[in-house]
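User: For my dataset I need records formatted as: sequence, then structure tokens, nothing else. Please produce one.
Assistant:
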Amino acid sequence: MLYETKNNHVVLRHRENGNVVCSLEYRLIVDSIALEPDRLVATERGILATFSHHETLAATIEDSLDTLNGCITITRETVLHASADYRIAHTFSAPFPHEPTLFVPAVLYKGNLAGKGAFPRKTPLENEWAFIESRTPLPAATILTAGDRGFAMCCDPSRSPRLPISASTRTSSAGAETTVWEPGYESPKRYTGKKTLDAATCSESSTWYHQAEGMEPLRLTITFHILEGSLGDNGPFGLYREFVNAYRRSAPSDSRELAPVSWQKYRELKFLHLLSLVEPIESGKTACLVMGRGNGSLQDVYEYTAGSFLVKSLEAAVILARAEASPLTQAEEKMLQAVCGRMGTPTCSPIDLSIMIGNFFLQGERAPGVHQDCYDRKRKIWGGYLGISEHDDFRHLINARCNGEVMTSYISLYEILKKAGHTRTEFIELPKRVARFYIKHQFTGRRDGSFGRWWSPEGRAVNSLGTNGAYIVSFLCAIEPYMAPGDGVAQALQRATRYYGQLVDSGEYFGDTLDADSCDKEAGVTLMNMFLDLYERKGNTKWLEYARKSAEFVATWIWQYDREFPESAPLAEKNFATTGMTSVSVAHHHLDFYGMLIAYGYLRLWEHSGEEFFRDQGRLMLDACRQLIATEDDLLGRGPEDIGWQPEQINHTDWDYFDRTSHKHGSFDIDIAWVTVLGLGAYQKIERRYPDIFSD
């Protein structure tokens, strides 16, 4: 790397070709006055900038420049001398042949113009957003692309005495200017709740360094990491993967020492909580999973059940059926007897419970092949989706994601039961009818091959956007051996692969979750899993390529560092580590334990491609998901009946789903069934296919 001083900035160039990487600008805000350097000179280490205020030395900034593992590193020491209030503006200007596209991982994608909600959007009036470092999987993560060129940067996480930073980017026809503000503040607004976008202010005391008369000079160190060059075949997502690889090799690790539960203990705790959530519908005949328990004043939100999405009763039935082959621990036997008591039967086995659950959700078929799996236990009504959402008419509709998840689980349940000597033909006939519904109504015309999103019971497409239809593709891969040759599965899959491949090619990762309408990680997860299913069906390497591209999008949601929480925060008390956790969506700024399922997909991709990045990131997520699970010694604030619960919402930043001030900046909350089912279901799959992963 070459560098040269020019006026009041420094230009970084590639040594090989002399092309400009970016320019560095040095600015301070001192007592609300913007200052530029008095002197900017080259030193043995790199660059030294000197600032004066009222004819007195105010501060110095010294950069040490290096290139490690293909990543440019700038280690910057700022020394604040004079008594004053300070803010530092670290500015990086990257040239592009035309206006670049900005991507801020987990926060801002394609301007957040798609979908519905209160989350930040890039508009003509609000086109430059500053986000605090705790919102992104790498601090100050900024990805810029134009044509075949990309620019990625981040910094190291704040550690005392350095205060958290924020980053904002302004784009133009000449390129982009990213400013990392230290201390950081958010503007023009702060996203603090699902429905709340508050006005922001930079006048808060926490957004300044205060140097009083007589204080020792304050020394602050920050390291920036920059990767610049040609884009590969996957735009910002491939670049980000390369950047993460370089960052993890060049940045010193300060990850916390974890003491997670063993995998054997994880399985037992999860299974105990799963059993505790099983409730009867009709005594001794039908059952379901309750959505959640013990959620205080919010419990009314969690009083319905479902076969899919937020509850996953049918996948729970699969888990119970598989568990029949393993001996139960004493604690599991005791919990099972409690469940039998609730069921009104003197004895019952896990496989009995799985059949009861399967029997109940058969009742959700409104007409041949038309299935709703959400059920309000108080009002005794079925619906397409009964939870919180941005749209009110979902109850009356049919959802492709819900149908795909439920029917795939019915197939697995049928196969496990048949192998165990319990043939339940109704558990395979329902999926066959649902498959015929989707094959019959598969889109033609402009969206040819799509299986849509929301449908009326009559087969009219109500909403076709997003990736929900990809769950139908995976479902059809599973049901294909049971269908008649003339049912058209192969032809439907051929058309579907073209449509969903186009979504990957154009980066259309939107609208997968039902309780939000935005860009979300689950859109990438389902496309990754769908293309892996297709690859394992026929071995077409094109589908493996699409799986890899989707997985690289998913990687932009995986946390690569540990955030420091306020000492009084519950997550600080638990020594919670954010490395390996996953952000949820641009609409939901919390972390969750979805990484268990992602890890299974990443291991499949590693198996087929040999790319160790996916194995290593999978392990990061698996380790993260063994945290914050209620044990006998620490029930996470609940009673012994809730042993094994894990919170859904890990509020790592200034945001809470319900905008509760008391639940931000390091809090956790909400017991919801999907966390238990998804985690334990993924564990069973990994244990069967990649047992060595759990031996480490």
